[in-house]
Amino acid sequence: QVRLVESGGGLVQPGGSLRLSCVASESAFMINIMRWYRQAPGKERELVASITRIGTTYYVESVKGRFTISRDNAKNTGYLQMNSLKPEDTAVYYCNALFYDGFNSWGQGTQVTISS
Fold first, then answer.
1. I need a surface site. Which of 5, 39, 45, 54 has the fewest CB within 10 A?
2. CA angle 90, 85, 108 (to 5 degrees)
């Protein structure tokens, strides 16, 4: 019912930074929980971070201290700030939103590549 549009991926050197964004196409539906996943070639998709509408956050251990998840409720948009990037962070990143109406949606995925 609602499309999530991702942006912000790209190629960056180790130690660099990127910020991903994820915006819901329909402002009438409010996001309850925003999540970011990633999937590297040959690996299972893993949960990277999540944030509730009131700002409670979760991070997978491997990104703690480097990634920050945030949201702008007025814009129905989620963000993932990624600092101190490592080659092992290379993956396709997907946003996922659980809406208060009870359904969820996925973004199209954005490639993040960390290479020197």
1. 54
2. 45
SS3 of residue 62 by DSSP: helix
Q: Convert the pLDDT of each residue in 26-70 to its tens digit.
A: 888 889 999 999 999 999 999 999 999 889 999 999 999 999 999
Asked if residues 13 and 116 have their Cβ atoms less than 8 Å apart, the reply is: yes
Q: Is 48 helix (H, G, I), strand (E, B) or coil?
A: strand
Distance, C-alpha 39 to centroid of its chain: 12
Which residue bears the tokens 């402002």? 27
Residues 6+ apart with CB under 8 A from 42: none
